[in-house]
Amino acid sequence: QVQLVESGGGSVQAGGSLRLSCEFSRYTGSSNCMGWFRQAPGKEREGVAGITIGGGSTYYADSVKGRFTISQDNAKNTVYLQMNSLKPEDSAMYYCAAGPFWCGRWSRYNAWGQGTQVTVSS
Fold first, then answer.
1. E strand residue ranges, the chain
2. Which of 8, 69, 85, 115 shows a CA-CA span of 20 to 30 A to 15?
3. Distance from C-alpha of 107 to C-alpha of 93, rounded to nearest angstrom
C-alpha cells in the first residue's frame, strides 16, 4: 500500500488559514484518488475533500465548499489542502487518504496517514 505522511497542522484563530501537505509513495496505479478526512473528539471520521490523480477532478464536503481547496503536485508526489476562513468547528485531526476509484465516494478510500492536528480558536 502507499505510504502517507501529513504535515502542516497547527493552531490558528478563526478566520485564519492553514495549508496541509501529504507526501505519498511513488504512484503505481493502484491508487487513483487522494483525499483528506477529519475527525473531532467524540465524532465520526468524515470526508473533507478528494481529488482524482492525474485527472484533476475534485470533490468537497458541503461544510467546506468555498473555503478549502485540494490540489496536487505530481512531480513531488504531494497533495495539499489549503484551508481558508477557518472556523472553530473545523478543529479536528486531519488524515490524508488514498483510494482506488470513485474519488468522491468517501467509503472507497482504504489507506490512511497518521494525521495532523488542526485547532481553530474563536
1. 4-7, 10-13, 18-24, 33-39, 46-52, 58-60, 68-73, 78-83, 92-99, 111-112, 116-121
2. 115
3. 18
